[in-house]
Structures are given as C-alpha cells and as structure tokens.
Write a structure and sequence with these properties.
Blueprint: H1 2-26, H2 32-44, E1 55-58, E2 68-75, H3 76-82, E3 84-86, E4 89-91, E5 95-98, E6 103-110, H4 115-118, E7 124-126, E8 131-137, E9 150-153, E10 158-161, E11 175-179, E12 185-189, E13 195-198, E14 202-209, H5 228-290, H6 295-303, H7 306-309
Antiparallel strand pairs: 1-2, 2-6, 3-4, 4-10, 5-9, 6-8, 7-14, 8-14, 10-13, 11-12, 11-14
The protein binds 2-acetamido-2-deoxy-beta-D-glucopyranose (3 copies).
InterPro entries: DUF1191 (IPR010605)
Organism: Rosa chinensis
Signal peptide: 1-25
C-alpha cells in the first residue's frame, strides 16, 4: 500500500515537472516557428494571378493585425545572376538555395508590434521591428506547411536596410540582431544607413541594451501606440503567473496526497490497535474465567506489605 502511494506521488510530481518544462520552453521563442508556418500559408494566398518578379502584399488573420507580409516569386537562376531588391532586403548576385528549386517564393515578414511577443529579447529594447525573410519552393502555390529552403549569399551578404529606426538613446550602441531559424541569436554592428548584413534566411532587427529597468521597450513603427512593450511585459507576467500557479497547484496536490498517505497510515494503525484491543479483551476474558480466583490472593499480597515496613520500626 505504502509503495502505491509513493509511486502515485512520484507520478504527480513528474507530470507537474514536465508541464513546467513545457511552459518555460514555450516562453522563449517557441511560438516563432509556428508563426512562420502560418505566415507562409497567408503569404501564398496573395498569389491569385501572380507575375514572376512582382511582390504581392498579403493579408494576415485578424488576430495578428499589426504584422505585414508579402510574397515574391522568382526564378532561382534570375535571383542568382541578377539579385533583387525586395522591401528592406537587398539581394546581391550569388544568392543560391538548397535544395534546388527552379522557382522560389521569398516570404517577407514585418512583425511590427508583435516583435517582442514572438522574439522576446531580455535585456534589450527594439529600435526597429523584427523583419523576416524565408524562402520556399514555388512549385505549388496552394501548399501549406512547406519546409523552408536554405538560401546562402555566396559573394556579398544580403543587406537589410531598416526604415523608421528609433533614435539610439544616449550612452548606448545600436546592434543588429539575427535570429537563426534554429533558435540561435547573434549580434553584429549596424552598418551605415541602418543596414544589417545576413548570409542566410532568418529574422533580423536593430536593438539596444536596455538601460537599467527601462519600462519602455517600444517596438513598432507606429508612434501613437505606447502599449507594445507593456503588452510583452503583461504576457511574460501572465506566463510567470501560470508557472507560479502550476507550482502552487502541484504543491497543493502533493499536500493532499501526503494527507491521504498519513490518513491511510493512521487508519491502518487504528485498525491494528483495535484488533489488538479486541485480542486483549478476549485474552482477559479467558484469564478471568480460567484463573478467576487468583485475583484475591494477589490483592492480599499487597496488603501484607506492612510486615516489611515493620522491619524499620524498632
Ligand atoms: C490566428 O487565427 C488563425 C486563423 O483563424 C489561426 O490559424 C491561428 O492559430 C491564430 N493564431 C494565433 C496566434 O492566435
Ligand atoms: C498591434 O497593433 C494592432 C493594431 O494596429 C492591434 O490590433 C494588435 O493587438 C497589436 N498587437 C500587440 C501584440 O500589441
Ligand atoms: C552565430 O554565432 C555562432 C557562434 O558564435 C556561429 O557559429 C554562427 O555561425 C553564427 N550565426 C550567424 C547566422 O552568424
């Protein structure tokens, strides 16, 4: 029985721990790959009668308003030989893709006020929103869940010329930040004209290190919205609360289990005691019946005590 209780308690602890691990993994950039998948789908919907080499702006679902996306279909040979300028991205000659695709689609993302939500960067503030560029095969324009193609700049880097960059606060240095699709984050210097360089696909932004507990890491290009930073904070706050709640819930469950175990043990002990008492009662009854008269002589023995006492009396 005790073993059962203990393994049950162990199981509960394990379940809560795995839930916690899941939550904390999610609170990094765990949602970003799912966003890429969704935005690929919505970007491809802009292709109704698409012309090669023409960028099309696409609609995002209303629950993601504030994000801008576009799609551009190209022959890969043309991209390699001539390069292309597409929104903030300048592709030099020599950019190829793997695996090979005859035509590819470049999906552009501007995460706007959602930058902090999908790419939280503790200790930094965004001066420009996160821009994403992902390449996909263009063979099926109604495809969803497409794997991205690896693009590589083989001659010069791809340049990202950020627009509407917020002024760098005094005493800080702006940095380019690159979010690799594998989740790694790299920083580099900002080039002239607010330009960052990249050798492959990914997500890019300009950031500064936050000064002390700065409460205003504003993201988007639209100035009359003071909320985005707060939104991100609130979100991470609610996550903290979820984690705290999980811990407390787990503890409460454990307490309940411990109580049950103790109660079970107490119950068994009482049962045991009752049984022993019952056995004792039976024994006493037997004792009474068989040697009922021995009680009187034993009482007399105590009464003879005074004879010992008399030894001390002179
Ligand atoms: C937004 O809405 C789309 C379509 O309605 C849905 O597929 C997606 O999961 C939603 N995304 C978020 C982050 O709520
Ligand atoms: C971003 O701004 C849009 C309005 O432009 C709003 O609907 C959306 O909720 C905002 N997103 C965040 C994360 O604040
Ligand atoms: C990021 O930095 C790591 C280690 O410093 C390096 O191996 C990796 O190639 C870099 N990634 C990019 C995209 O520069």
């Amino acid at each position: 029985m005790g073993l059962l209780y203990r393994s049950l308690a162990m199981l509960v602890v394990l379940i809560w721990l795995s839930r916690l691990a899941h939550l904390s993994a999610q609170s990094s950039s765990g949602q970003a790959p799912a966003l890429d998948v969704l935005l690929q789908d919505y970007a491809y919907r802009a292709f109704v009668h698409p012309k090669t080499g023409v960028p099309y702006d696409a609609q995002v679902p209303s629950n993601l308003s504030g994000i801008q996306i576009a799609a551009l279909r190209l022959r890969s040979g043309s991209l390699y030989r001539r390069g292309v300028v597409y929104k903030e991205f300048e592709f030099p000659v020599g950019v190829n893709e793997s695996p090979y695709a005859e035509r590819l689609v470049l999906v552009y993302q501007n995460l706007g006020n959602w930058s902090l939500v999908y790419y939280p960067l503790p200790g930094y503030s965004y001066l420009a929103p996160v821009l994403g560029l992902l390449a996909y095969d263009a063979i099926d324009l109604s495809a969803k869940n497409l794997p991205y193609l690896d693009i590589a700049a083989t001659v010069d880097p791809i340049k990202i010329k950020f627009q509407d960059v917020k002024p760098t606060p005094d005493g800080t240095v702006a940095k380019c930040v690159t979010f690799d699709l594998d989740g790694s984050v790299n920083f580099s210097n900002v080039g002239s004209g607010n330009a960052c360089s990249a050798f492959k696909q990914g997500h890019f932004a300009i950031v500064v290190e936050s000064i002390a507990p700065s409460p205003s890491p504003v993201t988007s290009g639209s100035p009359p919205t003071p909320t985005p930073g707060g939104r991100g904070k609130k979100k991470s706050n609610s996550k903290t609360w979820i984690i705290v709640g999980s811990v407390l819930g787990g503890l409460a469950l454990l307490a309940l289990l411990a109580f049950l175990v103790l109660w079970g043990r107490k119950y068994r002990e009482r049962k045991h005691l009752e049984e022993m008492e019952k056995a004792a009662d039976v024994g006493e009854a037997l004792h009474m019946t068989t040697v009922g008269d021995t009680k009187a002589p034993s009482a007399m023995v105590t009464r003879t005590q005074p004879t010992i006492e008399s030894e001390y009396v002179p």
